[in-house]
Amino acid sequence: MMESDVIEGYAKAGAVLSDLLLKHSRGISQGTSILDVCERIEHEILEAGCKPAFPVNFSVNSVAAHYTAKPGDGLRVEGLALVKLDVGVHYDGYIADAAVSVCVDGYGLELKEACESALEKALSRVREGTRVREISSVIDEEIRRLGAKPISNLTGHMIGRYKLHAGVSIPNVKSWSPLYRLKTGDVLAIEPFATFPDAAGVVVEQPPAQIFSLARRRKPRGRVEAAILSYASELKGLPFCRRWVKGRLGAMYAAELDRLARIGVLRAYPPLLEASGAPVAQAEATVVVDGDGAHVVAAPFRW
Questions:
Q1: Is position 97 annotated as part of the catalytic site?
Q2: For residue 199, which of 113, 135, 65, 108 has the smallest C-alpha distance?
Q3: Global model pTM greater than 0.85
Q4: Residue 222 binned pLDDT confidence (cut-offs 50, 70, 90)
């Protein structure tokens, strides 16, 4: 049984996230500024008494994940656009993570519907004793039933306090592993990704990265590195971005992030591109395992 402060933390983060996801996804259309959306959501998270669990992800078309606005980003939504808005909120380290796909002018609607249907079916299977591979099979089967293809190398994940990825992955394709059985108190982010059936169905990294996290601690070499590592430590292992570092420390500090990633002090998260260039949709919810059922903390639809 979860303690009351833990339940309160997830409830607070989830309520803030659900409201912001609904509000800002409705406002995405032709001409929307990616930078404006990212900064507004991050600002409103702070205004609500929570903190971002990671930089807002605003990934368009074949970019499946890990794109956040860079400093001064001039990109806007243009033409046929399938947008994935992925937002994380935490309250005292208790994280809610959810994503919605926005089909600008209806583009990619069938992929969005496949992901949301797969997510709903997966959530209905969450209970104590369910094997993770059962959830994966449900996602895979539902996406394919609706004429789409799951992304095989993107997965959901277990969540811990100040940990976005807490060890157990939840594949979106049928797999004999992991054999892990869910138990009461587990917190999961389930996130189906889907693309067209003739696409590669895998993602590849597309540098440069805008998102980073602290990979290992070491004695800082110089003033710039010391400031960056101090800032990263304040976030307790959660990801941050070049835009945040520039705003907090200045442009010269933001330029240092790539070097620190190359030597393994930071971990870089480049945008993830569908390998054949096909558009990708996503739906994600955070759920707490609660005995014979599940408590949905945040989702891209009313649950």
A1: yes
A2: 108
A3: yes
A4: confident
Band of pLDDT at residue 88, cut at 50, 70 and 90: very high
Catalytically annotated residue among 42, 73, 86, 142: 86
Asked whether the beta carbons of 214 and 245 are under 8 A apart, the reply is no
Cβ atoms of 31 and 113 within 8 Å: the answer is: no
Nearest alpha-carbon partner for 60 in 206, 235, 231, 249:
206
Of 113, 116, 191, 274, the catalytic one is 191
pLDDT of residue 17: 98
The domains of the chain are located at 4-206+271-298, 211-269
DSSP collapsed to 3 states, 105-116: CCCCHHHHHHHH
What are the φ and ψ backbone dihedral angles of 180, each rounded to 5 degrees? Answer: -55, 135
pLDDT beyond 70 at 303: no
Please indicate whether residue 191 is annotated as part of the active site.
Answer: yes
The question of whether 66 is a catalytic residue gets the answer no
Among 29, 30, 37, 24, CA closest to 100: 24
Per-residue pLDDT, 302: 74
Residue 198 annotated to the active site: no
Q: Which residue has the tokens 């979106």?
A: 172
Q: CATH topology for 4-206+271-298?
A: Creatine Amidinohydrolase (3.90.230)
Q: Among 42, 157, 274, 295, which one carries the catalytic annotation? A: 157
Active-site annotation holds for 105: no
Catalytic residue among 24, 42, 66, 97: 97
Q: pLDDT grade, residue 105 (50/70/90)?
A: very high
Contact call for residues 90 and 162 (beta carbons, < 8 A): yes
Region 82-100 average pLDDT = 99
Write down the catalytic residue from 78, 105, 165, 205.
165
Q: 29 to each of 32, 102, 104, how far by Cα in Å? A: 6, 9, 6
Active site residue 8: no
